[in-house]
Specification:
603 residues; mainly beta; Phage tail proteins - horseshoe like beta roll fold; OB fold (Dihydrolipoamide Acetyltransferase, E2P); five-stranded antiparallel β-sheet
Length: 603
Amino acid sequence: MAIPFNPISITIGKDGLSSFKSLRIDQSTGAHHHFDLTVDLESGGNRQVHNISSSKEWLGKDIIVKAASKPFFCGIVTNIELHRDGSDFGYIQVSGYSSTYRMETAPSCYSWNDRSIGDVVKSLCSDGKVQLALNAAHKKQLDYICQYEESDFDFVRRLALQYQEWMYYDGLKLVFGKPRRLPDPIKMEFGTSLSSLNIGLQTLARPEQVFTFHSGANREMDRKTPDKAYGHDRMAGDAFRAALPSYPKAARQYSIQRVSSINDLENYVLLKQAAETAETHYVTAESQDPRLHVGSVISLYSSFLKGVGNLSQESLGDFIIIEMTHEVSESCYYKNRFKAIPGTVMSLPNPKVEMPLAETQMATVLSNADPHGAGRVQVRMNWQTDNMRTSWVRVMTPDGGGSKDVKSNRGFVFIPEVGDQVLLGFRHGDPARPYVMGSLFNGTTGGGGGQGNNCKSLTSRTGCALKLNDSVGSVTLSDPGKTSIHMDGSGNATFDSSDKILISCGSATIELHKDGTIKINGKEISVGGTDISMAGTSSIVAGVGEGETPSTGIGMTTTDLNITSAKTCIDGTSETNVSSSSGTTSVTASSEVIVGGSKVKLN
């Protein structure tokens, strides 16, 4: 039965209530606290008028509840109702939530780069004007943190779930991370300060196997839960071990926390199982002590009579309160009910919050200068403003990987350009794990495939292009310097260049210049065929020697034929003629001319 305690006083805004009919405050970890306050009609307006014209001014105002002049709850008024029934004077129902409700924004999208989760929580609490006690265990800076279609408060709850951080509102401030020092225990004894006490055990332990993939290290990781009662007291440990044989098959789950090492994954599964089994051993009780709140530590005792005048006391251990209901009736009769778990737990029960499911969406490429040279890009989604951007994300390709002979870039390598519009997908639907699915043309960049969709092409940033035309079956490969190879689909191929064409293999080369010069160089050049024709409109020179002017050779022009060498032989197996159809034939030498044979005729 409730007993009078130190006076309970309530202030809404600047108005102190002279009286009230009842007050109820429901508190739990990882959630807003809720209150219902009932006041007489005259306390909220004129009892003679059926309206709430005065009390409506309480909407949006702070409410402070004090016990013995010491605040133990701060909240915000969100709802007011007037109730009348029959001939009674009626009453006003005032309800609302803890101050954390100021963080219950409309669902929003926001992102941070190179910040810790503590930095993000601190910023959001500052925006919502919510007092914060911060001691996050996860202190590493993360390359990308994303709030996706969530209120600020749900996002903070989700961070607590992902990174297994303690989170609760103690009535005055939001606690994020296990406090450096838990509050001093308050002694509570059944039979004196506790009017009821229930002790419970339940089988919550289940084996799990958690997997993840770290793309930067190309490493698949998985770890099983330790399946050991870490952080549990003796009774909880017994219940923990009793539960495991009932579930011989380990559930497989992906890690909702982005981890980069096996140590991180081991710590995650350890704390995850600790949170899921935190309520294995629990107590529920009723008391009349308004000092208690969510997060309070109590030392529980149970006393009983061993005999006449012999009162024995048994310690049940220290417990931390995770749920609580405060009730105050008229004349300030106060009582509370609470649920507590052993104070040795490593984790509090997980906040009941859904993971967001990110949908495909458009983004613009901001950079493709991956500092690790891995072909990743940074993009900005449409909702990202004020210098917000993703971390470096991978690009999907029709074929990609490595092989025995090709360590990297095996397959189809096309990295989007800065300014390109791309479509993002998300691994496991996690908004913090985006990847590029492909690029998107828009009204200014798309040209289509032409009439009948016959044209296909592959074009680089500078204009290097491969074009396929199905209307004629042609293929054209070209560059910005107007060099092209064209296959017309009818068996003809054209290699065209605006300056020079060079074909080389080892020390052999063929050069074609735009001025008409053709050069063929090689150690041995063979020309064969049934009929070979060689014609020059001005001259033909065939020579032997170094450089462009050989010392020995044959020179032909439209009027002359010159044969020059250190030794010249003209030999016909049956007949050799040196003649001129008209004019003069001369055989001369600088020193001596020898004409000889079995028969020599000189005419």
